Backbone:
């Protein structure tokens, strides 16, 4: 089976857009150790995005580089899920989202390591170790916030409620997928729910959001994120940086 | 060994050694100011992370700003060996009772400013900080060894950003020149007031905290930077810069210190924004720190 460019773009865009949101925290974190940790996580995600974008460009075969794909596509061409694209100025939301994304990525990359696509297996082999740390970091903060103060418990529960509807989109089928996203669902949900319960929080009972990121249908927020991310690059067509 | 003997033998004072209160206070003030500068310094460069013009540059910049947070951590830890704590030092920063380097009160208006900060500001910081690796207070000296290594990496990255811009399209070259024009004089001010007006210098020299005078360090920076500007193909905004054979140094124009004193007083272009950003991060994060403290108290209780 041939790996589709769209599939690799989906994984790349999840990582890229998440890194862009994560980097917002650098200089804004609750404590200095967390500035370092969130920067580290964002850097890992950016590194994964770069490797995946380069591979997507190769699969496409039109000579597009990682920067062409990151900076010169419009939002309708992005393939990331809604989970990662909305602003995340609340620390609890950031942690809830990281718990979900990283747990999903950890199952995904673990499966890709043994796939027949050698390039993806190589990228996944490095990424799987990085996201293990992301899951651990998100888990520890979920425990601290869930089982910390009354205020933090309420805020973390609210964060879970706001992000939970976006979990389902991670498991939506993608054409040309190397690992069928549906096959990851039980393990990912099981692991996330285990952390939620350990943190004395409750598993939200909410309907899934519609979500159409894999088909290029996004929230209004992605356009703003890209406008900011892309403007300098696009202001100087063809320039080298 | 007695404090004076240690200093006389160029030894290192360690946290458990006896030391005069004034020496301790001077070090706390200086190390805290240095730590605060690292964390406030995250803001002007952090301003360009979301807009970095390539993914490679974005990654380099994120790693750099992350390093600054790391430097802040080592420095607060060094200050804590003197019996103060980080939370109190941060309160003093937030209350305006302790300072940070005035250079970070200038805005980063274009991408080239990220290059100029790396090349000039980190370059000036290195000239200031290399002698601190031999500072008489051990924990500070050791923190500086690590910091200087990373700073010199940052300085080369800044130089490389400007080199790429200066050899790029005309608009890129203009952007680089504009950034250097704006950051040159504030970088010279980073060495502090002229020796005749420097309030703390003489005592710090006697204590082995400071090794060279402000003016000597400023001269060293100019001597190092002028040839690098030639390699970049950019000019420095001072018509009086020329080699002086007799002195064996570059001459340069007089620095307008009235600007420095205005910025120190709080009237620089970004003083209020920098402080508001820092205080907001601190206040918005209070519930998270409280949760972490409550959680670890519960764990400790459960284990007991």
Residues:
């Amino acid at each position: 089976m041939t790996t589709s460019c769209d599939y690799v773009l989906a994984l790349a865009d999840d990582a890229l857009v998440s890194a862009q949101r994560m980097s917002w925290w650098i200089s804004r974190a609750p404590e200095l150790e967390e500035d370092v940790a969130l920067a580290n996580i964002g850097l890992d995600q950016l590194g994964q995005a770069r490797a995946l974008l380069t591979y997507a460009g190769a699969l496409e075969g039109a000579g597009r580089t990682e920067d062409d794909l990151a900076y010169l596509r419009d939002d309708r061409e992005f393939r990331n899920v809604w989970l990662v694209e909305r602003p995340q100025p609340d620390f609890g939301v950031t942690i809830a989202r990281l718990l979900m994304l990283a747990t999903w990525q950890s199952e995904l990359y673990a499966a890709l390591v043994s796939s027949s696509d050698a390039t993806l297996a190589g990228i996944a082999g490095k990424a799987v170790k990085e996201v293990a740390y992301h899951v651990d970091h998100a888990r520890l903060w979920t425990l601290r916030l869930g089982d910390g103060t009354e205020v933090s418990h309420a805020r973390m529960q609210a964060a879970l409620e706001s992000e939970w509807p976006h979990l389902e989109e991670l498991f939506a089928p993608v054409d040309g997928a190397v690992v069928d996203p549906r096959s990851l669902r039980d393990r990912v949900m099981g692991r996330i729910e285990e952390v939620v319960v350990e943190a004395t929080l409750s598993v939200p009972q909410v309907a899934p959001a519609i979500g159409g990121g894999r088909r290029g249908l996004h929230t209004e927020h992605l356009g703003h994120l890209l406008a900011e991310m892309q403007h300098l690059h696009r202001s100087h067509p063809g320039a080298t940086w | 060994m007695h404090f004076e003997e240690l200093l006389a033998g160029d030894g290192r004072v360690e946290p458990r050694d006896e030391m005069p209160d004034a020496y301790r206070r001077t070090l706390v003030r200086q190390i805290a100011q240095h730590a605060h500068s690292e964390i406030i310094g995250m803001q002007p460069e952090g301003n360009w992370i979301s807009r970095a013009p390539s993914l490679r540059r974005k990654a380099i910049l994120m790693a750099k700003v992350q390093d600054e947070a790391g430097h802040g951590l080592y420095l607060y830890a060094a200050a804590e060996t003197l019996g103060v704590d980080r939370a109190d030092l941060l309160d003093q920063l937030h209350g305006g009772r302790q300072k940070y380097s005035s250079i970070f009160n200038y805005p980063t208006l274009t991408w080239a400013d990220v290059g100029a900060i790396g090349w000039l500001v980190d370059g000036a910081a290195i000239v200031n900080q290399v002698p601190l690796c031999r500072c008489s207070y051990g924990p500070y000296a050791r923190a500086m060894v690590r910091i200087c290594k990373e700073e010199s990496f940052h300085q080369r990255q800044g130089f490389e950003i400007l080199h790429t811009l200066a050899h790029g399209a005309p608009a890129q070259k203009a952007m680089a020149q504009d950034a250097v024009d704006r950051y040159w004089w504030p970088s010279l001010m980073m060495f502090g007031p002229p020796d005749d007006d420097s309030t703390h210098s003489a005592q710090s020299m006697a204590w082995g905290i400071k090794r060279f005078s402000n003016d000597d360090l400023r001269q060293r920076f100019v001597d190092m930077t002028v040839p690098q500007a030639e390699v970049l193909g950019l000019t420095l905004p001072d018509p009086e810069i020329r080699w002086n054979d007799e002195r064996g140094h570059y001459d340069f124009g007089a620095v307008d210190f009235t600007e420095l004193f205005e910025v120190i007083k709080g009237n620089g272009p970004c003083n209020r924004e920098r402080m508001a950003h820092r205080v907001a991060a601190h206040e918005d994060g209070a519930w998270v720190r409280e949760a972490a403290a409550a959680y670890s108290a519960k764990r400790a209780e459960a284990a007991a």
